[in-house]
Structures are given as C-alpha cells and as structure tokens.
Amino acid sequence: MKYWLIILGMVGLTGCARFETHPLVPAQTAAQLESRRLDDAGLRVFLEQNLGHKLEVWPLPEWDLNTLTLAAFYYHPSLEVARAQWAVARAAIKTAKGRPNPSITVTPGYDTTTAIPSPWIPMLNFDWPLETAGKRDKRIAEARELAESARWDIVTTAWRVRASVRDSLLDWRVAEDRGALLDQQYDRQQQIANRLQQRVEAGDAARSELTTAQIALHKTRLDQWDARAKSSDARARLAGALGLGTEALAGVRLVCEPAATPPPILNSPAARQLALTGRADLLGALADYAAAEDDLQLEIAKQYPDVHFSPGYQFNQGDNQWTLGLTVELPLLNQNQGPIAAAKARRQLAAAQFTALQSRIIGDLDRALAADQLAEQSLASGETLLTAEREQENSVQAQQQAGTADQFDLLNAQLEQINARLVQQEGRAQVQRTRDALEDALQHPLDSATVSALQHLSATPHPKKLHP
Q: What is the pLDDT of residues 26-79, one digit of tens each?
C-alpha cells in the first residue's frame, strides 16, 4: 500500500505545470507603444518577407496603401488580440481531447473488537470513468470549429485594419487637395477684393460688391481652416489605424493612388457569389454554425450515461478482499432535455445570424454598385463643368490680350475654374469611396486577382452554394 501511494503521487506530480508570473507594467507598455516608428528594423524584415523582394532604401522614401497596410499588420494591436483569441480557441481543442482522470479513494478503518491478526481494515477504491456515445469526438469537433471561426476572425480583423488605413489615407489626401485648391481660391478672392476696394475708392463700384467679395473671402478662410483640421484629423486617424502615435508620421511622405476602375464583371452573378462564399466573416459564421451543430450532437449524446468502472481492495482481518464495481446513471428523471433544447436554440440562432449576414452582404454589394454608377455620372458632370470653365478662362485671356477684358475679368474666370476643380475633386473622392465600399462588400481588393477569381467563378457550371 505504501509503495502504491508513492507511485501514484509521483505520477501525479509529473503532470503538474508551474506558474510563471508575467506582470503588466502600464508605463512600460505605453513606452513601447510610443516608441514605434516606420523605420524599425523588424518592420523592414516584415515588409521584405511580404513584398517578396529586398528594400534597397530604408526607411522608405514614400508610403502607399500597400506598404502602410503591411505596417498596420505588423503593429496594430487588434490583430494581436485576434491571434491571442485564436490561441485560446486552439487550446480549447487540447482541453476537449482530455480524457476524464480516474480517482482513488482511501478509506482507513479500525476494528476495536479484535486485534488478531490486525485491527486495521484499510480499503482502497478506484473509479475509472468511461465516456460513451462518442462524446469526446463530438467535443473535439466543436472545439475545432470554434478554432476555425477564430482563425477566420483574424482575416476579418485584418481586412478591417486595411479598410481603416485606406479610408483615413483617402480622407487625408482629399483634405490636402482641397486645402491646396482653397489656397488658390483665397488668393484669387484676395486679388478681387483688392481691386474692388480700389474701384470703390475711385467711385467705379458699389460698396455692396466689395462687401460680397469680403464675405466670400472670409468663408474661404473658414474652409481653409476646416480643410487643415480635417487633414490633421485624418493623419491622426491614419496613425491610429497603423497602431502608431501621430509623431511616428512626422516627416513621412504619404502617397494615395487613385482608385482602380471596377471591372464590368462586378455586376455579374459571379461577384455576388464571391461575396456570399468567400468573405472571411461569412466563413467564420459558417464555422460557428458547424460548432453549434456539434454542440447539439454532444448534448444529445449526453442522454446516454457514462460508465464508471470501480475496482476495490480491502485488507480485512488478514484477508485480501477484492471487489469489482460498475456504476451507470439511470436516465429516469432527467434525459438532458433542457441542454438539448438550449443547443437547438443556439443552432437556430447561428443559422439566423448566418442568413442575416448574407442578407447584409447582398445589400452592401447592391448599394455599392448603385452608388458607384451615380458617382461616375456625378464625376462626368464635374468634368464637363471643368472643361467649360477652362474654355471660359482661355476665352477671357484672349479677350484680355485683345483689350476687350481686364485683369478683373480674368480673376473671376480663374476663380470659377477653381470652383469647378473643387467640384471635380469632390466627385473623384466620392468615386473613390464607392469603390472602397465595393472592396468592403467583396472583402477583396479591386485588382487583377479579384478579376481572375470572378472569371473563374463565372466559368463554373454549377456554383457551390452554402447552406447552414
């Protein structure tokens, strides 16, 4: 008995994990966050690995959406959270694989009526549980599906990070371009106001004309401040989207390329199929539904009781007595109906969430396609207006050279052209935003790879359908 207890104790100790403390020091983590920069050596290695080529110049002379997105993937804390959640889900698989441990019960006894051959009557009982109905396999299957859902959540989070970088970069570019045009507009309005001041003093113009020009000048000054504020805000949001402080973007040259023209195939059933079958959040919801089904199967399997094998030993008055017990729960009063009903409800909820997500994706795609067409029409009107204003300016210049128009007329023509350029710039920004919305609806960049995927789906005779 003594040796058996020693052996069992040693076996138990071999599986013990040791706790190691990892304290969080707020001041230290804050310092690490604030020290992040775009010239980090680790970031360079990460970029080279993902771009597939060596970077000849470091730090990069300019940063576009692609390189900024990779920097966000390297730094942004939300991706660390998603990866940590995936690690937790994968650890749950190991937990699900665990088998129930046997237990041992030691019951010492003492007989006070006799001491021959020994008053001690110790008893030793084992309990070895045996799971039935494949509960362990169903538990493992559920844990694996939940881990798959967590893995897809990393992809969904990565897309959200990219979208945040893309949107803030666009907002910064729009604010910068608008600010530059407003500076030109303010310059022309200032010259017009000065000339009107001279005319008023000479008695050749009414005071009301000067007042109107001065009011327009003040409004433009307010628009300039608004554009600078939006530029500063967008730059700060871009830094946040990268997981950096605003100081990390000081002196960094940013480049915002124009949006790619959406291919006509985006209006095809293949685009809808790609959105409804290829998005990471949709695949994650599908994994959640599969986990709910595995959970229901597990609860149904729990109707069948587990078996407990219970051998025992007792030393009784010099006799070695062995027993063999078998314990089975009798499902007479409770057949696990409550947990089964709850599991069915969770499966129904997962199916409803999956369908709701598909419906939202369809709506997002339809709205993005319709908005893109309207934005294109609006941009075309803006282009027409700008062309007309340029022709008008050229005409006024020719009239000025001919002596039939003066500098005041030319300034007004230039001012009208600047206003048309502001309209055109807003139209281009709106087109960019609608194409970004198309990207979000597909969760695919509008590039050649997306076109190839859509063409492949179009060539598939019987597209695969997803059914929860």
A: 988 888 888 899 999 999 999 999 999 999 999 999 999 999 999 999 999 999
Tell me the average pLDDT across 222-244.
96
- Which tens digits make up the pLDDT trace of 208-228? 888 989 999 999 999 999 999
Residue 324 DSSP SS3 = strand
Closest to 295 in 3D by CA, of 227, 250, 332, 344: 344
For the cut 90, the answer to whether the pLDDT of residue 159 exceeds it is yes
Q: How many CB atoms lie within 10 A of CB 442?
A: 23
| DSSP-derived secondary structure letter, 254 | B
Domain ranges of the chain: 63-111+121-459
Q: Kindly state the tokens that stand for 463.
A: 């597209």
Q: Which of 88-102, 212-226, 252-266, 269-283 has the lowest mean pLDDT?
A: 252-266
Angstrom distance (rounded) from CA 47 to CA 45: 5
Q: Which amino acid type is present at position 341?
A: A
Q: Give the distance from CA 455 to its chain's centroid.
A: 27
Name the burial class of residue 161, with classes exposed (0-12), middle (13-18) and buried (19+) by CB atoms within 10 angstroms of its CB: buried
Q: What is the CA radius of gyration of the chain?
A: 36
Q: For residue 308, which phi and psi values (nearest 5 degrees)?
A: -115, 115
Edge-to-edge strands, sheet with 307-316: 103-107, 123-130, 307-316, 319-328
**321 forms bridges with which residues in the sheet?**
314
Residue 10 makes CB contacts below 8 A (sequence gap 6+) with: none
Token pair for 68: 């900024």
| Residue 145 half-sphere exposure toward CB, CA atoms < 13 A | 19
Distance, CA of 210 to CA of 428 (rounded, Å): 34
Distance CA 424, CA 401 (A): 29
Question: Burial of 432 by CB count in 10 Å (0-12 exposed, 13-18 middle, 19+ buried)?
Answer: buried
Q: For domain 63-111+121-459, which architecture applies?
A: Up-down Bundle (1.20)
